[in-house]
Design brief:
- By secondary structure, the protein is an all-beta fold.
- The protein has two domains: 68 residues, no CATH class; 82 residues, no CATH class.
- The protein contains no helices and six strands.
- Strands 1-2 form a two-stranded antiparallel ribbon.
- The radius of gyration is 33 Å and the shape is elongated.
- It is a single-pass type I membrane protein.
- This is ITA2B protein.
- GO terms for molecular function: integrin binding.
């Protein structure tokens, strides 16, 4: 006839998480009720492909072992909409800010000794394209401390 909000209490029973909801007392013989349940389950990352709920209706007044039960299996699906956003290229511009936000990488190479080293080569690969789109626009490459540097031909191709 009317709608009532149930009082439910979570507890653990034999290593299983149980939620016990009291439907009311007393109920008339032959009474029919409908219960809509909304369950929120967190930390499903390692649960697998589905989660199973065992629902059982018990009566405190009935010593019968034929309490009605049902098993409900709900598939677990993860959905995410992802976007990789870059910078809108301003064609023909000579201003660096029109080609993206400045990102500076600094690499330091130290000899921790005790011996002296020579002829050391440090190779750094920087992805500048993602498919046909510019991911990083490489402006300049510099060194300090008497090192020689060679660079890829994609360095500042628009002469910004």
């Amino acid at each position: 006839q009317g709608q009532e909000k149930l009082s439910c209490n979570p507890k653990k029973e034999n290593g299983t998480h149980v939620v016990l909801c009291e439907l009311g007392n007393p109920m008339k013989a032959g009474a029919q009720i409908t219960v809509d349940m909304e369950l929120s389950v967190s930390r499903l990352e390692d649960i697998g492909e589905a989660i199973t709920f065992h629902l059982q209706l018990r009566s405190k007044n009935s010593p019968s072992s034929s309490n009605a039960s049902v098993t409900v299996t709900v598939p677990v699906e993860a959905e995410a909409e992802m976007q990789l956003r870059g910078w809108h290229w301003v064609e023909g511009s000579q201003r660096p800010e029109d080609h993206g936000i400045k990102v500076e990488h600094v690499y330091e190479l130290h000899n921790k000794g005790p011996g002296i080293v020579s002829g050391v080569t440090l190779s750094i690969a920087v992805p500048h394209l993602l498919g046909d789109h510019v991911l990083l626009y490489l402006l300049e490459l510099g060194t300090e401390g008497g090192m020689n540097c060679s660079h890829h031909p994609a360095l500042n191709p628009a002469q910004v």
